Amino acid sequence: MSDQDREDRIYRMVVRFYELGGEDPELARVFGAAITDWPDHFRIVADFWSNALYGTGRYRGHPFPVHMQLDFSPHAFEAWLKAFTQAVTEILTPMEAQNALGRARHMTESFRVGLFPFTLADGTPSRVPARKD
Ligand code: HEM
User: Fold this and answer.
1) What is the model's pLDDT at position 130?
2) Which of 10, 24, 66, 84 has most ligand 1 atoms within 8 Å of CB, for mutation?
């Protein structure tokens, strides 16, 4: 399997992920509001996964601050992971899919803790502390 096949597969996985993610209304809203140049965005995210899976050095950005600017609810994490799980299972090799999912779960968890550091009385994650009154 050539490096080019591998990179093409990762790119196709990213495009498929956005196709599936776009079926969720909240993800569609967040993606639509923030992403203006789709091919450019696909390239950036494919480079991220190329680096995450194969250490290619293609991505040198910082995803965390990018996500801090976005407005979405905890539901978005579930929808994101569901679409991602389907995309990697359909398109990547089983080993790549397993590695990518491990990384994605870890990052989703860091985003969740960073973005929703509080928990309300009913257990809902929240960006702000519960009211005391
Ligand atoms: C609720 C979950 C998520 C939502 C709604 C979301 C949404 C977005 C959006 C809208 C952008 C484009 C931001 C912009 O260009 O202004 C973006 C960028 C990106 N996302 Fe996510 N994302 C989520 C989770 C994740 C996770 C779990 C990962 C990785 C495991 C990830 C990886 C990336 C990367 C690498 C970029 C490009 C960052 C850059 O420009 O350097 N995202 N995301």
Assistant:
1) 86
2) 66
